[in-house]
């Protein structure tokens, strides 16, 4: 009897456990590895991959684990690991250093030379055996190759004649966490920080491993652990030990840790009388700190710095420049191969009354003055992660400085974790924008990948917003933005449609109807958000502080550049911020022909019209509508799109698991209510000035 009870108890526990593991709560992200549903493809995969060959018995465990579990689950049969490719159907994985077969193939030129980063995947016949080879020079490259192969199978692509050679176009691909040491996350909408600082270093949250894995699967190779609005404590011995414990978990997945530092750390932690970057004691303090960090974390990535911005201290307080500050830190990190990412998110209105102009004015005179291991980190647009902005004019304006681009994955200004907004089209618009800096074709992507200006370091960062919600991002569809960030950081030339297609197949289903429906919902979702929030180039109309919902009449008593009215400037005469040559002149920060194109009301595209111009309400657009009519049309169009998404989603009820279906359905309802609010509030507000 007792035995039966125990048995029952254990079966119950097992049941609960497996229910939890298989719960459709989004935890598994795009790494679901469900059995391949198409029988023809399943057969192909099963015949092509019968064994996994790792010649090195000490092959890195993430690689082993990922391939073993991934392949066995996708193929729904165990795929044994062997140490030699004796038969057909072997998948051989490794580097020339740990695989004699790969080394020999390279020597015999049967494999093309491997890229420094990245990987090659090749199907080949060798002595009558058909093999698939995944090779790279470094363990991280092998891991990327393995994830690529798994992705091909997850998305049900043929693997019969593989000939793939890939290298990342951008060197540093970072997730920036704005996590505070108390566990809260600035602009995070998916719960609390996954680092669990109080438990570290003794107890490491097991989620961190899953987080690393997901990042490695999309090529992310660095994580900044803490908020740019940093606290000095992060550099104490106590927190460095915690950081080292996280670094140990991330390292096997090819990911380095970085930290945001506070400029006045030497004063706060060790009572130095100054934080002047040219002061000898300050320099020594940072050098000693760097040594301490690298003793604990030999592959530490470097520092991210928000200085003299939004109340943060900086070298300017001591009469020094951004370059003086960055170079002092760069000098301390240089012996260990670390880098500095110095943010250009500054808007001191004493420099110019137009916030959009400030960073350019402060930073361009410093071009050529930064140390070789210092990046200037530039947000995609000149204001602040608005639904739509023109690209930041700093791109192309600092040819001697490697610029790292900062995007926002967390949806601070785009509906947070409530709205389905697929941001890849926004990022593509920026990456594909032509700066004309070195003649036509000098796209922003070519500036940040270093190719246009010949830099040997390059980087891109996404503000993550990842939290401890089961689905990581709050909204299941926000996972797509994380996924897209990694894929674009790897290859900015991928299309947003292709990335969405991959993500949908891996996250939801390979059923063509589901892929098509979700793909079409996602495709227009960003443009719809622009329409129902800030159409025609409007910006920063969000409610004060939390940035969710409309507040076009908001006036900040102390800082007019934090007021909505500062940005839209609606009055009886018209609407929009005049940044033309005769206005603030911000358009002149762009190269010709953009100056002319965007500088004239006649040729400025409607998407940027009110960003660059103050136009009368009855100004006619090319489509024959007045600005006032078009504004109302676009607000309505945006809200209608969300209504359309609701219906499209409802039609998938039988194709999606109930848990995720309901979750998304409820959020779409909330998104629609919010879009309607925008559509009602903004036109009603502007209507008091507008003339029909
Ligand atoms: C803005 C956020 C603010 C950040 C700031 C930054 O509202 O919370 O601290 O950017 O990037 O978007 O430093």
Can you characterise this structure?
- With 692 residues, the protein is α/β, with parallel strands linked by helices.
- It has 3 domains: 2-165, Chitobiase, domain 2 (2-Layer Sandwich); 172-493, TIM Barrel, CATH 3.20.20.80; 528-577 and 614-690, Alpha-Beta Complex (Alpha-d-glucuronidase, C-terminal Domain).
- It is 39% helix and 10% strand.
- The strands form 2 sheets. An 8-stranded parallel beta barrel has the order 7-8-9-10-11-12-13-14. A 6-stranded mixed beta sheet has the order 2-1-3-5-4-6.
- α9 crosses α10 (322-333).
- It is globular and about 80 Å long.
- The model is unreliable at 1-21 (pLDDT under 50).
- The site of beta-D-glucopyranuronic acid has 10 residues, from loops.
- Beta-D-glucopyranuronic acid binds next to loops.
Q: Compounds present?
A: beta-D-glucopyranuronic acid
Please, what is the CATH homologous superfamily of the largest domain? Answer: Glycosidases
Instruction: Please give the CATH class of the largest domain.
Output: Alpha Beta
Q: How many domains is the backbone divided into? A: 3
Q: How can the largest sheet be summarized?
A: 8 strands, parallel, barrel
Which range best describes the helical content: under 10%, 10-25%, 25-40%, 40-55%, 55-70% or over 70%? 25-40%
Give the amount of beta strand, in percent.
5-15%
Assign the CATH architecture of the largest domain: Alpha-Beta Barrel
- Mean pLDDT over the residues: 95
Question: How many strands in all?
Answer: 14
Helical segment count: 22
* CATH T-level fold name of the largest domain: TIM Barrel
Through-space gap between termini = 85 Å
């Amino acid at each position: 009897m007792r035995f039966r009870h125990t048995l029952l108890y254990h079966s119950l526990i097992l049941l609960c456990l497996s229910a939890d593991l298989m719960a459709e709560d989004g935890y598994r992200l795009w790494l679901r590895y469900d059995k391949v549903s198409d029988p023809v493809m399943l057969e192909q995969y099963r015949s092509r991959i019968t064994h996994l060959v790792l010649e090195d018995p000490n092959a890195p465990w993430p690689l082993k684990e990922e391939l073993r579990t991934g392949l066995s689950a996708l193929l729904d049969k165990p795929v044994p690991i062997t140490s030699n490719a004796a038969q057909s159907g072997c998948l051989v994985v490794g580097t020339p250093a740990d695989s004699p077969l790969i080394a020999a193939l390279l020597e015999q030129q049967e494999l093309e030379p491997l890229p420094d980063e990245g990987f090659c995947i090749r199907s080949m016949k060798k002595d009558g055996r058909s093999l698939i080879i995944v090779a790279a020079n470094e363990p991280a490259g092998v891991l990327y190759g393995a994830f690529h192969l798994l992705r091909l199978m997850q998305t049900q692509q043929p693997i019969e004649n593989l000939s793939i050679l890939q290298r990342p176009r951008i060197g540093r691909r970072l997730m920036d966490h704005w996590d505070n040491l108390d566990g809260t996350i600035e602009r995070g909408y998916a719960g609390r920080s996954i680092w669990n600082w109080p438990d570290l270093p003794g107890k490491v949250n097991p989620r961190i491993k899953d987080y690393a894995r997901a990042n490695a699967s999309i090529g992310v190779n660095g994580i900044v652990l803490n908020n740019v609005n940093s606290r000095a404590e992060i550099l104490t011995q106590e927190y460095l030990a915690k950081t080292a414990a996280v670094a140990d978990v991330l390292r096997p997945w090819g990911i380095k840790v970085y930290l945001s530092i506070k400029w006045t750390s030497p004063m706060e932690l060790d009572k130095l009388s100054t934080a002047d970057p040219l002061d000898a004691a300050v320099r020594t303090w940072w050098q000693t700190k760097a040594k301490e960090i690298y003793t604990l974390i030999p592959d530490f990535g470097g520092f991210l710095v928000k200085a003299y911005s939004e109340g943060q201290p900086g070298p300017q307080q001591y009469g020094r420049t951004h370059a003086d500050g960055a170079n002092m830190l760069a000098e301390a990190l240089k012996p260990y191969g670390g880098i500095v990412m110095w943010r250009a998110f500054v808007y001191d209105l004493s420099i110019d009354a137009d916030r959009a102009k400030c960073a350019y004015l402060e930073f361009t005179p410093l071009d050529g003055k930064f140390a070789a291991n210092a990046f200037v980190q530039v947000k995609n647009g000149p204001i602040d992660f608005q639904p739509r902005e023109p690209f930041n004019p700093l791109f192309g304006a600092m040819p001697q400085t490697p610029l790292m681009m900062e995007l926002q994955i967390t949806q601070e200004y785009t509906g947070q974790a409530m709205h389905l907004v697929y941001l890849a089209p926004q990022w593509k618009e920026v990456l594909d924008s032509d700066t004309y800096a070195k003649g036509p074709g000098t796209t922003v992507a070519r500036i940040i990948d270093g190719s246009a200006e010949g830099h040997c370091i390059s980087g891109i960062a996404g503000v993550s917003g990842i939290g401890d919600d089961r689905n990581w991002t709050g909204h299941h569809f926000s996972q797509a933005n994380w996924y897209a960030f990694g894929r674009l950081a790897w290859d900015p030339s991928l299309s947003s449609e292709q990335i969405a297609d991959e993500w949908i197949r891996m996250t939801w289903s390979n059923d063509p109807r589901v892929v098509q429906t979700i793909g079409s919902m996602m495709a227009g979702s960003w443009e719809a958000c622009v329409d129902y929030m800030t159409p025609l180039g409007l910006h920063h109309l969000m409610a004060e502080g939390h940035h969710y919902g409309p507040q076009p009449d908001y006036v900040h008593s102390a800082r007019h550049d934090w007021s909505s009215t500062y940005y839209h400037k609606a009055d009886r005469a018209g609407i929009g911020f005049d940044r033309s040559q005769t206005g603030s002149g911000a358009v002149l920060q762009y190269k010709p022909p953009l100056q002319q194109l965007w500088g004239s009301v006649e040729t400025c595209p409607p998407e940027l019209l009110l960003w660059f111009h103050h136009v009368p309400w009855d100004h006619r657009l090319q489509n024959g509508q007045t600005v006032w009519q078009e504004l109302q049309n676009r607000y309505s169009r945006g809200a209608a799109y969300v209504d359309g998404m609701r219906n499209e989603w409802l039609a998938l009820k039988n194709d999606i698991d109930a848990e995720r279906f309901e979750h998304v359905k409820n959020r779409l309802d909330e998104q629609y209510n919010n879009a309607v609010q925008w559509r009602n509030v903004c036109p009603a507000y502007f209507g008091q000035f507008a003339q029909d």
